[in-house]
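Dear support,

I submitted the protein below through the web form. The confirmation email said the job was done, but the results page showed an empty box. After a refresh the structure appeared. I'm attaching both so you can tell me whether what I see now is the final result or a partial one.
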Amino acid sequence: MRFTIEQRHLTDDAGRPIVTPHTATFHTFEADDADAAVRLFIRDDGGELLGDVRQFPGLEAMATVRKIGGVYTLQASPTSQSPTRP
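What the results page shows now:
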């Protein structure tokens, strides 16, 4: 299944909260479920999961991640049930 992951930064490189609206970035991952999609993103991005991946009804999940560039949240939602086409 294909998932879209929305990434929103919460802190800057110095660890200070971002006070102005920060543009979200979107990424697509193929995974069995939303939890797996979030974990694939974290692995590929070199981040560290803070706490647990929280799963919600409708194949959605959220997580908070830390890395050298700051802290950010991820929200995974299903994009499509059809496989990615070349």
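Response: this is the final, complete result; the empty box was a page-load delay. The beta strands are 2-9, 25-30, 48-56, 60-67, 70-80.
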